Amino acid sequence: MNAWSLVLLLWTVSAAQAQAPVVQFDFDSRIVFSSTMGGNTDIYLLSRNRLERLTDDPGIDQWPVPDPAGERIAFTSNRRGNFDIYLMDLKSRKIERLTNDGRDEMMPSWSADGQAVYYELLTGRNTSLPQRQDIRSGATAPLLPDPPFSSCIVPFSNPRGDEIYFTGKVFLGWLVAKYNLNTKKYTELTKSGSCRPKVSPDGSRVAYVCGDDDRLGDVFLMNPDGGAKVNITKSRKDAYDYYPCFSPSGDMIVFSSSPKKQGKNAYQLYILDLKTGDVRRILTTEGNDSFPYWFK
Fold first, then answer.
1. Which of 114, 164, 158 has the alpha carbon at shortest distance from 134?
2. Fewer CB in 10 Å around end: N or C, the chain?
């Protein structure tokens, strides 16, 4: 072997080693997320010291969310042209198409009882309205009646199933709001500059993203009525901290973080202990790892 061949071999081995994901997740639970680590945007499953690729399609597969039982995930894919909602059985890995509309359907979530999927229906340029589709019958109806916002995205139910939290479009940006299914009342929970709420498993807290402090994005917590707001990633300077989701026990949060200098193109997965405030990375990849959801 000549010197050039040896250099090329060493470079190839080094590059392969640099690209290998490093898993530092040692919990008896799972995190599903989307990533570009395999060269395309696909869905992955992180479990105790293990990483699995769930989809491998030329299209874009993203925004995976498990059902309340942890048996299926709903996700968005444009594998057949425009974006539709698909379901995957996590045991058999069988995939079925849930929606089939000429318009894009994106960012799904589940009803609290697991009988329906919520998602965004693109109704115009930069305009989306949440829909509810029954799994068994396929019947579809608007999720939010006459919303006081020009667009509503990323709807998530609370554990009781009586309130829907979402991001609403206002004149100067986006804010976090909720809709009560019993009182039929809308409530604005934050001011403009906030988005992507998720409720804790016991329904006592709401995690969301806000750019008030660093103009990039931090993870905040608040009460379901909008009170007691606190920035829990304030010490993390020069980073985009996005897509928070509570652990199944509610005492930790997983989120995606990307350095400011790399924009929103280098997200990696981190967890934050709500008791101690400690933050640590649980997965290191060469991809953009986003939309994590932590479940049993």
1. 114
2. N
Query: Which of 250, 208, 197, 248 is closest to 232 using CA atoms?
Result: 208
* pLDDT tens series, the chain, 296 aa: 444 443 333 333 344 445 799 999 999 999 999 999 999 999 999 999 999 999 999 999 999 999 999 999 999 999 999 999 999 999 999 999 999 989 999 999 999 999 999 999 998 887 899 999 999 999 999 999 999 999 999 999 999 999 999 999 998 899 999 999 999 999 999 999 999 999 999 999 999 999 999 999 999 999 999 999 999 999 998 999 999 999 999 999 999 999 999 999 999 999 999 999 999 999 999 999 999 999 99
What's the distance, CA 22 to chain centroid? 21
Q: How far apart are CA 252 and CA 275, in angstroms?
A: 8
Q: Which residue has the tokens 């990696």?
A: 268
When divided into structural domains, the chain yields a total of 1
Query: Would residue 17 count as lying in a domain?
Result: no
Q: Report if residue 224 sits inside a domain.
A: yes
Radius of gyration of the chain (CA): 20
Question: Residue 6 in 3-state DSSP?
Answer: helix
State the number of CA atoms in the 13 A half-sphere of 284 facing the CB.
8
The CA-CA-CA angle for residues 163, 65, 245, to 5°, reads 70
* CA dist list (Å): 296 to 227, 239, 244, 247, 249: 29, 28, 16, 9, 9
Q: Strand order in 127-134's β-sheet?
A: 105-110, 116-124, 127-134, 140-142
Host domain of residue 114: 22-295
Judge whether 235 lies within some domain. yes
CATH number of residue 110's parent domain: 2.120.10.30
